[in-house]
Design brief:
309 residues; 45% helix; globular; single chain; alpha/beta; seven-stranded mixed beta sheet; 9 helices
Amino acid sequence: RRCVQETVNAEYMGFYIGAIFFLPIRLIFAISFVVNCFLIAKLKSFLPNTEITRTFCAYAIGFNCRLILLCAGFYQIPEIEKSVSDYDPTYPLIYLTRKNPAPIIVSNHVTFLDILYILSTFRPVSFLSKAGVKKIPLIGEVATQIGSIFVEREDQQSKDFVKNALRESYNQILEDSSHPSCVVFPEGTTTNGQELISFKKGAFISLLPVQIYCLQYGRESLNLSLDFLTIDIVFLIFCAFYNKLTVYNVGVYYPDHLKLSVDKEDSWQVYAEKVKDIMSKCLAIPKSEKGFRDKQNFFNILKKRMDSK
């Protein structure tokens, strides 16, 4: 018990030291890199939407996002190549030789840092995002200029628009590989990283191929998936001397062999469950049927308890 207490005290001391020596300079640099991303996005709005423009912006924004991650203590982010067949023995091996690009990238969603990592891969990407992101200063402009698709959670017309937009994106990628893939977090919200909650239909309803990423954060000293994303947690991230992220690139999943049809209501669920099973095995975490509403209810309970104190 004494040894554990000494370890905890040492970790606290590390954060105190980080708050004094790391936090001010890291925050200044990180904010400047965010402003750089905004200026690059603003510049893009005046340029023609060509392959050169998209590639330049992907590299310029990606470089600044990588610097933000560096400021947050992610000095090295290993990306481990995996294969769909490693986790799904029924997947046709011949599909592994396909070179067709995936119009959709799916990943588990733990923290806002997920977005920074995906942008830092230097490939043109957009995001399927809630409409409120468009109103966030600086970030909203970046999200708009990289071609993000904004959706209102409760608006059925908005959801139909997403389906058509993803299909159109696929057609454009087939014609021009520099067209951005759309990143979709199928859980629809951030989680604690300890399980995969229910997947929403957005990434799967069109039955298009998906590129699978699995992100796993270290939890040695700071849990980056805390219940509330507050300014305090952001400060703690920048106080930590070192944060850890491991990325598993599972590859592209082509659903052809599942013999699904867009006309069948449950086809997307079969597809989503296959991908969820692969991600669960890759991350070695269980699957859950809990969803976005359950998280909101949990947050409301926590908020009431905090307000009552």
